[in-house]
């Protein structure tokens, strides 16, 4: 393959959110944060992971704006940023509606095809 | 929390997998139902090159103001009449759509649509390969015109 043409690096917010949500550990971290703020130490506890590994996951979540980290306290507790999750939920609802409508129309089209076929048989 | 950027939509139709697969891939059929709601997709606005690496493009016309929107996808898998996969590289970081036609053996077929945002690294390799194939084919076509 020669040149890679026309494939722009799409770095929009939603794709960052979905990439962040694709990992089960990160989803578990978000679930924990839904209960309230937590420090890296507190988050590392239940996961049998090093703080370093947890910190890596937190960076991905922070980049996707799914969490924020306090700059003031030295422990830098993490908090969930729920509105960015809502964007992901909206995406799913929107696409589900498109497919539901599409299949409603497909059903009508199939009925029309059947009626036509019946009309053509002597 | 179950959100993963994935969507699964299932619908049972009273028709064979063959007919449903054709409906999803033949412009004469697609024009009747592709939508989305509030738009029309004339048959001349639908391009289907039904093979892996082939393009699937639909230009939808807004019923209200006549504005248009083009969906540009590339087929990744074409397995008549069981499975159809395409990728839209430019939508929200890359979106993969898989349609499975599941024969219920009683005259009905379950059509399962699975859509997912794909991580960019994965999407790029696959979609780039698809686009490169299309471009190669286009170049071949141009050569036949010029020779």
* Residue fraction in strands of chain B: 35-45%
What's the CATH class label of chain B?
Alpha Beta
H/E element string of chain A?
A: HHHHEEH
Write down the oligomeric state. heterodimer
Helix and strand sequence of chain B: EHHEEEEEEEH
Low-confidence stretches of chain A: 1-11
Average pLDDT figure of chain B: 79
Amino- and carboxy-terminal Cα gap of chain B: 60 Å
Shape of chain B: globular
Describe this protein's structure.
- The complex is a heterodimer of chains A (122) and B (147).
- By secondary structure, chain A is mainly alpha-helical.
- Chain A has five helices and two strands; from the N terminus they run ααααββα.
- Chain A starts with 12 loop residues before the first helix and ends with a helix.
- Chain B has a single domain (6-139), classed as Alpha-D-Glucose-1,6-Bisphosphate, Chain A, domain 4, CATH 3.30.530.
- Chain B is built from three helices and eight strands.
- In chain B, β4 and β5 (68-79) form a beta hairpin.
- In chain B, α1 packs across α2 (27-33).
- The longest helix of chain B has 27 residues, at 120-146.
- Chain B is globular, with a radius of gyration of 17 Å.
- The termini of chain B are far apart.
- The A-B interface holds A 1-2, 4-12, 14-19, 21-22, 27, 30-31, 34, 85, 88-89, 91-92, 95-96, 98-103, 105-110, 112-113 and B 1, 3-7, 9, 11, 13-15, 19-20, 23, 29, 32-37, 89-90, 92-94, 111, 113, 115, 117, 119-120, 124, 127-129, 131-132, 135.
């Amino acid at each position: 393959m020669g040149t890679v043409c026309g494939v722009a690096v799409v770095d929009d917010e939603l794709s960052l959110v979905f990439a962040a949500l694709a990992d089960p550990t990160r989803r578990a971290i978000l679930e924990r944060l839904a209960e309230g703020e937590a420090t890296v130490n507190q988050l590392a506890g239940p996961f049998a992971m090093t703080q370093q590994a947890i910190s890596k996951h937190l960076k991905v979540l922070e980049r996707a704006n799914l969490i924020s980290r306090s700059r003031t306290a030295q422990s830098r507790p993490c908090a969930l940023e729920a509105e960015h999750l809502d964007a992901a939920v909206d995406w799913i609802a929107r696409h589900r509606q498109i497919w539901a409508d599409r299949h409603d129309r497909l059903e009508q089209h199939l009925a029309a095809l059947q009626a036509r076929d019946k009309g053509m048989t002597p | 929390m179950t959100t993963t950027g994935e969507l699964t939509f299932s619908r049972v139709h009273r028709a064979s997998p063959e007919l449903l697969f054709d409906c999803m891939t033949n412009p004469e059929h697609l024009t009747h139902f592709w939508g989305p709601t509030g738009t029309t997709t004339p048959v001349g606005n639908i391009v289907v090159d039904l093979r892996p690496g082939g393009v699937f493009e639909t230009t939808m016309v807004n019923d209200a103001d006549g504005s248009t929107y083009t969906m540009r996808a590339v087929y990744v898998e074409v397995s008549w009449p069981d499975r159809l996969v395409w990728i839209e590289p430019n939508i929200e970081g890359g979106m993969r759509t898989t349609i499975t036609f599941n024969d219920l053996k009683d005259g009905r077929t379950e059509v399962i649509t699975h859509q997912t945002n794909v991580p960019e690294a994965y999407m790029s390799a696959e979609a780039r390969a698809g686009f490169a194939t299309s471009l190669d084919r286009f170049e071949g076509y141009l050569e036949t015109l010029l020779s």
